[in-house]
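PROTEIN DESIGN WORKSHEET
SECTION A - STRUCTURE
LENGTH: 141
TOKENS:
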């Protein structure tokens, strides 16, 4: 039995999108697979940056748009860190920055269609967290 078989319980149905992804990967040439792997790794690296998930989670769970000051109130991070993450998420095409020519200046962030496509992943993590405690108390281990 190879590692993939051991990692996938036989009593769990494979979600259709996962089956599609596996089929696409199996049918793709090596260059395409390498490109997909790089894109997934880049996304995970971005999401792994401090507070990036906190920001995107607000969009996934509560919608938007969000002003910078609202994000400051909700994300436990310095303004510098929030600003840096917003720039990275914007550069990655997950958020859009909208500056309004008003006094005082107003800037809002909205999520892109690309980020909306990630919302089910955030929802799945919440569903998983409802069913599982990854860090049970010592007496439960």
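SECTION B - SEQUENCE
RESIDUE ASSIGNMENT:
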């Amino acid at each position: 039995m190879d590692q993939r078989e051991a990692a996938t319980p036989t009593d769990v149905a494979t979600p259709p999108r996962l089956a599609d992804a596996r089929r696409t990967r199996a049918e793709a040439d090596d260059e395409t697979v390498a490109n997909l792997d790089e894109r997934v790794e880049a996304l995970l690296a971005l999401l792994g940056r401090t507070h990036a998930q906190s920001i995107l989670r607000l969009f996934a769970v509560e919608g938007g748009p969000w002003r910078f000051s609202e994000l400051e109130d909700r994300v436990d991070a310095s303004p510098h860190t929030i600003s840096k993450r917003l720039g990275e998420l914007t550069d990655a095409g997950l958020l859009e920055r909208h500056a309004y020519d008003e006094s005082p200046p107003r800037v809002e962030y909205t999520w892109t269609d690309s980020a909306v496509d990630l919302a089910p992943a955030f929802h799945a993590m919440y569903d998983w967290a409802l069913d599982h405690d990854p860090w049970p108390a010592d007496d439960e281990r």
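SECTION C - NOTES
The first helix runs from residue 3 to 7.
The longest strand covers residues 95-100.
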